[in-house]
Design brief:
13 strands, three-stranded parallel β-sheet, alpha/beta, 24% strand, 7 helices, disordered N terminus
Length: 263
């Protein structure tokens, strides 16, 4: 994996939350949408609350189920409880946890109308509060962590950044992505963009293999929607085994190399 930086551009300045929210406000003024929806990604979570505040609307964030045009389900307490929320205002401002929904089948040309706000006569004035400086983009030959069908994640049990090579070799054989727990990221074993959990990325692959991850509630909230969960941990009482479909109580430094050899 390598990291590349891009310098300041006009396009980048337009994508900061202050600029995007102003354009959303202007679009709502021109078109009077009934629903304003964004993905519950870091970018969407940065933009949507600001736009909602400018419109005077209470947003409903991170929804995982749609019950009707104005009623939704969202997780609370790191996913330990679900709240059914009804939006009573005329305009609904929503962010959606994309991993909670099946991928849509798109046949032919999409029927959505795309509006180029920069071509409108009334364009919001440039904001001066925030300046886009640069972005660091990590590139990898592996699938994107958020959309991969297979995710191999490591925790503090890997003990070093060098040992993540064990997971990378397994991910390459399975055609998957590599993830990490917050403990592993905080310890410097893995970069921040690999973090899975409440303060990282939410994933829902077909197969999730957790290696050396105890299963803190913050991590579970970001991966428990995975179709099949496999846990490898030397501690038989680790909380990760409570959500795992398959569990192996063994030292990961023995189990992962053996799994690599068998594949």
């Amino acid at each position: 994996m390598d990291t590349r930086s891009s310098s300041t551009t006009n396009t980048g300045s337009l994508l900061v939350a202050e600029s995007v929210s102003s354009h959303i406000q202007q679009a709502q003024k021109l078109y009077s949408f009934s629903h304003i929806v964004a993905p519950a990604t870091k970018f969407g979570s940065n933009v949507l609350p600001r736009a909602a505040a400018m419109l005077g609307i209470s947003p409903i964030t991170d929804i995982i189920e749609i019950l009707s045009q104005d009623t939704f389900v969202r997780p609370i307490y790191a996913g330990n409880a679900l709240a059914k929320v009804q939006a009573t205002q005329n305009v609904k401002v929503l962010s959606v946890r994309t991993t909670a929904f099946e991928k849509a089948n798109v046949d032919g040309s999409p029927n959505a109308t795309v509006i180029n706000l920069m071509e409108e006569k009334e364009v919001p004035p440039p904001q001066t509060l925030t300046e886009f400086v640069k972005e660091n983009v990590s590139s990898s030959d592996r699938p994107d962590l958020a959309t991969a069908n297979v995710v191999i994640s490591g925790g503090r049990g890997l003990k070093s950044a060098e040992n993540f090579a064990l997971l990378e070799a397994l991910a390459d054989k399975l055609g998957g992505a590599v993830g990490a727990s917050r403990a592993a990221v905080d310890a410097g074993y893995a970069p921040n963009d690999l973090q899975v959990g409440q303060t990282g990325k939410c994933v829902a692959p077909e197969l999730y293999i957790a290696c050396g991850i105890s299963g803190a509630i913050q991590h579970l909230s970001g991966m428990k929607d995975s179709k099949t969960i496999v846990a490898i941990n030397s501690d038989p009482d680790a909380p990760i085994f409570q959500v795992a479909d398959y569990g192996l109580v063994q030292d990961l430094f023995k189990a992962v190399p053996e799994l690599n050899r068998q594949l």
